[in-house]
Design a protein that fits this description.
The complex is a heterodimer of chains A (217) and B (323). Chain A has nine helices and no strands. Chain A starts with a helix and ends with a helix. With 217 residues, chain A is mainly alpha-helical. Chain A has one domain (5-212): Orthogonal Bundle (MetI-like fold). Chain B has 323 residues and is α/β, with parallel strands linked by helices. Chain B folds into two domains: 8-251, Rossmann fold; 258-317, CBS domain Like (Alpha-Beta Complex), CATH 3.90.1280. Chain B has 14 helices and 13 strands. In chain B, helix 8 links the parallel strand 7 (164-168) and strand 8 (196-201). Classes of the chains: A mainly alpha (217), B alpha/beta (323). The A-B interface holds A 109, 111-112, 114-122, 125, 130, 133-134, 211-215, 217 and B 56, 58, 78-84, 87, 89, 91-99, 106-107, 110, 140-143, 156. Chain A: It is a multi-pass membrane protein. Chain A: Residues 20-203 form the ABC transmembrane type-1 domain. Chain A: This is Osmoprotectant transport system permease protein.
């Protein structure tokens, strides 16, 4: 029934590379936006009880909304393609990033902050040169979790004509029983998994090289 | 080159935390001379640390005034103020993500010193606290022992050569041997630099060993006695101070009296010898250990008996004016 995989790949590998790059691009863009937004929210709420609980609860509830439902809700407002995809990926990335920013900042020992302030650092300077660098390894871990999450969710965004490998998966799904249905789904899925692994590896390196050696020794 | 200390004046300083009935520090007045090392000693929770932290406004006083070198600290920008007050805390507080050199350069950087001047200063300070710059400058705090970290903490506080230092149990977390070594080094350093230092501790022995004067504090940072170690040991102001001194006050006092300060008998070269710059406690120790009747002071032109040592103690018991 199914066409042979090697013929399938030989015919479509250029297509596949484009889709993979698109997939990577939409994930990277969303992560970048979510990192800026999430760290900012974390900075605003980490030391205030009520706002912190509110932010983490809201992000926690948000992540339980099924991605298909969210895309269906966004599409009437934002149309099809990149816009609803990016918005939904940012949405799901916020929880791990905000949560880890909060945890990371709260883990900075109070005596280090006192030591910095006691030497005459302003609150802003203390935040930038002491608190954020010390919280950074935890924040990066949050971004890494968000990356894993969004690589998978991005595939579903093909439902609203989003960019990326989801196109193949949905193609396979909608043409069940046809010659290449399995090839489409299989190729799309494997590429998504490979991309997730690659990204994870990249984040291990990013975490390593963006963290002070003093925190690793 | 080092800038000498300046005077600190606290008058009627009170700290009352919101929602609390009793003040943490109540009507505290104290005057510290330039270049003096004043110990605040008292039990945990007596307000000694709170009192100290009001000087660099880590804690803002509720009322009263604090001046450093005649200048009202409450009228200054707190960040600017703190850059000119050395600050050492018990947990040391070295920044783990910065090298030793970067840690020491913290305040010079805030003050906008040039790279060259900062680097020179870092090297100079590392040598001052007996750490080889070539070995330690580019290490991270975690790669140093507790004692070495504490030295870096002191070097960092001295970086911009502040006239005043505040030290909150700086040697509290080190083991007894390291602690004694750090104390001795610190005394030697202070003899060179002559900073005005407020040093908080709950360890009375440490207060005796280091302080020019000691303020014995009780609850709400009330001053029970403020005097030299010798005077406090010889004439404790009240039961509270006596109980704080605990047992062995006589021996503690002997440790503070150099042999050079007492009258000696004629030399006796057959007796065991004690160093001329040792203390009476060392002389007594030698008497006990050897069982001899007297010890000879080597190079000091005399000898000491048990009676002489006792006499020196009772002489010191007469009230002495604080210098």
């Amino acid at each position: 029934m199914s066409g042979s995989l090697d013929v399938f790949l030989a015919r479509r590998w250029e297509d596949l590379v484009t889709l993979t790059l698109q997939h990577l691009a939409v994930v990277a863009l969303s992560l970048a936006i979510a990192t800026v937004l999430g760290v900012l929210i974390g900075l605003l709420v980490w030391d205030k009880n009520v706002p912190r609980t509110a932010a983490l609860t809201a992000a926690g509830i948000a992540i339980t909304i099924p991605s298909l439902a969210l895309l269906a809700l966004l599409s009437p407002v934002l149309g099809l393609g990149w816009a609803p995809t990016v918005v939904s990926l940012v949405f799901y990335s916020l929880l791990p990033i905000v949560r880890n920013t909060v945890v990371g900042l709260r883990e900075v020992p109070a005596h280090l902050i006192e030591s910095a302030r006691g030497m005459g650092m302003t609150p802003a300077k203390t935040l930038i040169s002491i608190q954020l660098p010390l919280a950074w390894p935890v924040i990066v871990t949050g971004i890494r979790v968000a990356a894993q999450l969004t690589v998978g969710i991005a595939a579903i965004a093909a439902y609203v004509a989003g960019p990326g490998l989801g196109l193949y998966i949905f193609k396979g799904l909608s043409s069940l029983g046809s010659v290449n249905a399995l090839n489409f789904t299989l190729t799309g899925t494997i590429c998504v998994v490979l991309l997730a692994l690659l990204l994870d590896g990249a984040f291990v390196l990013i975490a390593r090289y963006s963290t002070s050696r003093g925190l690793r020794v | 080159m080092s800038e000498p200390g300046v005077g600190i004046e606290l008058s009627h300083v009170t700290k009352l935390y919101a929602g609390q009935q009793q003040a943490a520090v109540e009507d505290f007045s104290l005057s510290v001379h330039p270049g003096e090392l004043v110990m605040f000693v008292g039990p945990s929770g007596c307000g000694k640390t709170t009192t100290m932290k009001m000087i660099n406004r880590i804690i803002e006083p509720s009322s009263g005034s604090i001046t450093i070198d005649g200048q009202d600290v409450l009228s200054l920008d707190p960040n600017e103020l703190r850059r000119h007050i050395g600050y050492v805390i018990q947990q040391i507080g070295l920044f783990p993500h910065m090298t030793i050199a970067e840690n020491i350069a913290t305040v010079p950087k805030l003050l906008g010193w040039s790279k060259e001047r900062t680097n020179d200063r870092v090297d100079e300070l590392l040598r001052t606290v007996q750490l080889d710059p070539a070995v330690f400058a580019h290490r991270y705090p975690k790669q140093l022992s507790g004692g070495q970290q504490q030295r870096v903490g002191v070097a960092r506080a001295l970086a911009a050569d502040p006239p005043v230092m505040l030290m909150d149990e700086p040697f509290g977390a080190t083991d007894p041997i390291t602690r004694q070594k750090l104390q001795a080094e610190f005394l030697k350093l202070q003899a060179d630099i002559g900073k005005t230092i407020i040093f908080v501790t709950h360890d009375f022995d440490e207060a005796i060993r280091l302080g020019d004067r000691i303020a014995v504090l009780s609850e709400r940072s009330q001053i029970e006695q403020f005097d030299t170690p010798a005077n406090i040991l010889a004439n404790p102001a009240n039961d509270y101070v006596s109980s704080f001194i605990g047992h062995g006050a006589g021996l503690m006092r002997l440790a503070l009296i150099p042999i050079g300060d007492v009258e000696l008998d004629a030399p006796d070269s057959t007796a065991p010898a004690v160093d001329a710059d040792a203390s009476l406690r060392d002389a007594l120790d030698l008497l006990m250990v050897t069982g001899a009747e007297r010890v000879n002071v080597s190079g000091g032109g005399g000898s000491l008996t048990h009676a002489r040592i006792s006499a020196a103690l009772s002489k010191a018991r007469q009230p002495v004016e604080a210098s």
